[in-house]
């Protein structure tokens, strides 16, 4: 009898042990990557470490890999699916397949899909958000690029695909180079639609500001400066990053864009520049797979993990 009682007590103690309790509450969290970049980024590794400290399991799985890797996940976080623009239709099919499973995806699939097409800036402008002067153009359009430049009084402008990432095919084009750009770029990508935007000299003068929000609350910011002779600040163009401390007024202006969404996202990065009068000009609202630069913000990885 004593032996049976002893075994029962040992079993109870095992069940109540910290390790057992930790495992019973363990969540499977998948950070989405891609075949070109299968591993977690430096920033995302910090978040994964925090989640693992809490007893959760974190896997890095490419969206264009084995779909079975996502089955049974408690949360799927879009983080480094940075090659999606090379197979947009495939990425959309993958999102639809995820949606059919009913699995929790962050950010929510509907707002991610809308965020893929960069003409959302026109909707933000209609909602009272300051954005660069923006027009749209496609190869089959009756309106020429020259006409768009002339309409806005531009001698130069930035042209970017409406669906794109990492600065891919983003070019600064001057009026005299339009025909060359059409021949070398637009004709080779005849199905693409393009944004035509005013060039923002502030990017060269004071840098592009990136403000990161978790659940709609400001977390931290960095400023990205260009290399000499470059206007893009993406990592492949070797943009120079440093921690930034924006004023409450700038934070409020940037955060206002999130209020236009039907759902407040888990994470968001708002990129833009500051005009002399203190007005924030939103260049992009990144809700799909933005780098969050947590390596520049000690302590904020735990905040994201908690969120």
Automatic annotation (TrEMBL):
TM stretches of this protein? none
- One of the Pfam families matching this protein, by short name: GSH-S_ATP
Q: Which InterPro entries match?
A: ATP_grasp_subdomain_1 (IPR013815), DcsG_Biosynth_Enzyme (IPR053191), GSHS_ATP-bd (IPR004218)
Q: Which residues form the Prokaryotic glutathione synthetase ATP-binding domain?
A: 141-240
Q: Could you state a single Gene Ontology molecular function term? A: glutathione synthase activity
What name goes with this protein?
Answer: Prokaryotic glutathione synthetase ATP-binding domain-containing protein
Question: What organism is recorded for this protein?
Answer: candidate division KSB3 bacterium
């Amino acid at each position: 009898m004593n032996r049976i009682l002893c075994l029962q007590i040992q079993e109870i103690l095992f069940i109540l042990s910290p390790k057992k309790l930790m495992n019973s509450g363990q969540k499977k969290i998948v950070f989405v990557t891609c075949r070109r970049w299968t591993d977690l980024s430096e920033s995302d590794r910090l978040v994964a470490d925090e989640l693992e400290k809490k007893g959760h399991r974190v896997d890095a799985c490419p969206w264009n890999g084995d779909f079975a890797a996502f089955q049974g996940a408690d949360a799927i976080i879009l983080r480094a699916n940075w090659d999606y623009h090379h197979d947009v239709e495939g990425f959309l099919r993958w999102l639809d397949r995820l949606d059919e499973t009913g699995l929790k995806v962050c950010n929510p699939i509907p707002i991610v899909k809308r965020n893929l097409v960069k003409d959302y800036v026109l909707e933000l402008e209609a909602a009272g958000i300051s954005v660069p002067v923006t027009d749209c153009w496609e190869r089959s359009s009756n309106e020429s690029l020259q006409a768009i430049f002339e309409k806005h009084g531009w001698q130069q402008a930035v042209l970017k695909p409406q669906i794109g990432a990492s600065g891919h095919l983003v070019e600064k084009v001057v009026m005299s180079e339009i025909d060359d750009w059409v021949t070398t770029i637009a004709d080779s990508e005849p199905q693409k639609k393009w944004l035509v935007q005013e060039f923002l000299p502030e990017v060269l003068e004071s840098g592009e500001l990136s403000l990161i929000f978790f659940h709609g609350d400001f977390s931290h910011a960095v400023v990205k400066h260009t290399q000499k002779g470059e206007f893009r600040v993406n990592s492949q163009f070797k943009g120079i990053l440093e921690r930034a401390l924006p004023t409450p007024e700038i934070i409020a202006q940037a955060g206002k864009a999130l209020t236009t969404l039907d759902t407040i996202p888990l994470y968001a990065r708002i990129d833009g520049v500051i005009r002399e009068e203190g007005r924030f000009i939103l260049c992009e609202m990144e809700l799909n797979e933005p780098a969050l630069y947590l390596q520049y913000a000690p302590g904020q990885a735990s905040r994201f993990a908690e969120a």
